Amino acid sequence: MNILVIQHKMIGDVLTTAILFELLRKIHPNAQLHYLINENTQPVVLGNPFIDKVWLFTPQMAEEKQARKQFNKKIIQQKFDLVIDVYAKLGSALLTKRIKPKQSISYHKWYTELAYKKTVWPKKHTEKDERLAITNRVLLLEKLGHKIDQVPSPKIYLDA
């Protein structure tokens, strides 16, 4: 199984979303787990043992249509079975639609039902121990039918 998680936001969002990889590794131990993030956020996922490949979206790709098209083409060629889009913006929705995964999920917005097989309304508050941002990320996996008993904390892995 080939899985792509998309998170184009800032460094804290990328670190928080990285908990999904630890959970996904338990659910799909033999899957290839890929992470699409902005280039400037890469330091918080370096050394993460649960991520097999990191795709870096650069400022050049944001500005130059041709660079973005080439990057997207490489991602589409990976033939992902599952896309989890935590970013939930129009650009990542369009990319997901072009990937044509067997399963895809993101947060509900006016355009997301056209691009994803499943959408979920993010919670506005939580009674759980973890923060709301973590609760909403776990909610994406639960909507896919996975029971999550224990939620890991975000971690930065340091090389010696």
Question: What features would you describe in this structure?
Answer:
The chain is α/β, with parallel strands linked by helices and 160 residues long. It is 37% helix and 19% strand. It contains seven helices and six strands, in the order βααββααβαβαβα. The protein has helices at residues 11-17, 19-27, 59-63, 65-76, 90-99, 112-115, 132-143, and strands at residues 2-7, 32-38, 53-57, 82-85, 103-107, 118-120. Helix 5 (90-99) links the parallel strand 4 and strand 5. The protein starts with a strand and ends in a 17-residue tail after the last helix. The mean pLDDT is 94.
Please report the distance between the alpha carbons of the first and last residues: 31 Å
Shape category = globular
Tell me the major beta sheet.
Answer: 6 strands, parallel
Put simply, the count of helices is 7
Specify the helix fraction band: 25-40%
Give the helices and strands as they follow along the chain: EHHEEHHEHEHEH
Radius of gyration: 15 Å
Number of strands: 6
What structural category arises from helix and sheet content?
alpha/beta
Strand neighbour order, sheet with most strands: 3-2-1-4-5-6
Beta-strand percent range = 15-25%
What is the residue-mean pLDDT, rounded to a whole number? Answer: 94
Low-confidence stretches: none
List keywords for this structure.
160 residues, alpha/beta, six-stranded parallel beta sheet, 7 helices, 6 strands, globular
What's the short version?
This protein has 7 helices and 6 strands; from the N terminus they run βααββααβαβαβα. By secondary structure, the chain is of the alpha/beta class.
